[in-house]
Amino acid sequence: MKIRHVECFPLKITPEQAYLGGSAEGHDSDYYYRPEYRCVYSRKMETCLVKITTDDGCVGWGEALAPVVPQVIAELITQLFAPLLEGQSPFASAVLNSRMYDAMRDRGHITGYHIDAIAAVDIALWDLKGKLLGLPVWQLLGGAYRQTIPCYVSGLPEPDLPARCQLAKRWQKKGFNAVKLALGYGVREDIANVRAIRETLGTDAQIFLDAHWNYSVAEAAELGGALRELGVGFLEAPLLPEDVAGHRELRAKSPVAIALGETERTRYQFKPFIEQRAADILQPDVGRTGISELMHIASLAETWNLKVAPHLSVGLAPCIAASLHVAAAIPNLFMLEYQPPVFEIANQLLTTPLICQQGAYQLPQGPGLGIEINEAAVLEATC
């Protein structure tokens, strides 16, 4: 059993509304800069899928989290990884992962697009192995600690506070009693937003806050003090992601749990945050780590008694499915992220949709990732 062919599909899908709000059409460029988040965003849903086919026609699908210029991921896989993968056994995934990582390690490519491309291949190999063996990925990972995956509604993408409160209440009525606010607009404004959501949802709801790296240690500590009184479960990304020492200092001061990790891709990058006790909850994204590395990260976190809440933003069907399998297979899961507009688009790429209802995802039961890609839809969206 050998890998015969590796194909990439960089996708651009125009949504009804841009991620986290705003117009998706009528602009000269797909990309724009959000000063409040210090990041470049696309007005479209962008990602890169990879399809690995064996010599007997079995297929595995993977995905890299590629919110901007997914063509870069496709080019890396096509030019660097496909020659390395073709002719190899899909069951040699650990060896292949090491070879792909080592291929650019001495050139400093130990994060970013290169690792994202490895993540896509890794997910596809797990899907392929599961299909060849007739087993779901969660079973290959050692079994499922849970058959449903608890989640929180992420973002509340409305332009003003009253609309965010209304949206949160609508989700609560649908059985989703945990939400995360995408804020970072200033300590006072963030507190006002959280207080309004708390008053809207009541004392039993779980509320989290993503500050998008916008604060100093002093500001984040002040915010954390106020958030404790409002019953906030964690403060995510309060400081610049490079600042390990600042996170350590903040964690010592904050009465609210500190969550981080969407920017990190390997256990080596998570290691200083773990060893210096700079976080309470780790948030690796499977579209940046792959399944294998996320399991390594979760195991390392477990040795330090830390929880894992996998990040899940604009990743589509393979990313979501892979996240579900990992979330089922790790003992130290906190919760999984749920992005309703993204989830809807992801299901458009599948013949049978993934399910998330009443505050939880259903774990796929089929072999591999347990999803079937609608290749016609993928080809239509390929750029």
UniProtKB/TrEMBL annotation:
Q: List the SUPFAM superfamilies.
A: Enolase C-terminal domain-like, Enolase N-terminal domain-like
* Protein name (record): Mandelate racemase/muconate lactonizing enzyme family protein
Which GO biological process annotations does it have?
A: amino acid catabolic process; carbohydrate catabolic process
Question: GO: which molecular function terms?
Answer: hydro-lyase activity; magnesium ion binding
Name what cofactor the protein needs: Mg(2+)
Extract the PANTHER family matched here.
ENOLASE SUPERFAMILY, MANDELATE RACEMASE (PTHR13794), MITOCHONDRIAL ENOLASE SUPERFAMILY MEMBER 1 (PTHR13794:SF58)
Give the CDD domains listed for this entry. Answer: MR_like
| Swiss-Prot/TrEMBL keywords | Magnesium, Metal-binding
Under InterPro entries, the record lists: Enolase-like_C_sf (IPR036849), Enolase-like_N (IPR029017), Enolase_C-like (IPR029065), Mandel_Rmase/mucon_lact_enz_CS (IPR018110), Mandelate_racemase_C (IPR013342), Mandelate_racemase_N_dom (IPR013341), RHMD-like (IPR046945)
- Origin superkingdom: Bacteria
Query: What region holds the Mandelate racemase/muconate lactonizing enzyme C-terminal domain?
Result: 162-257
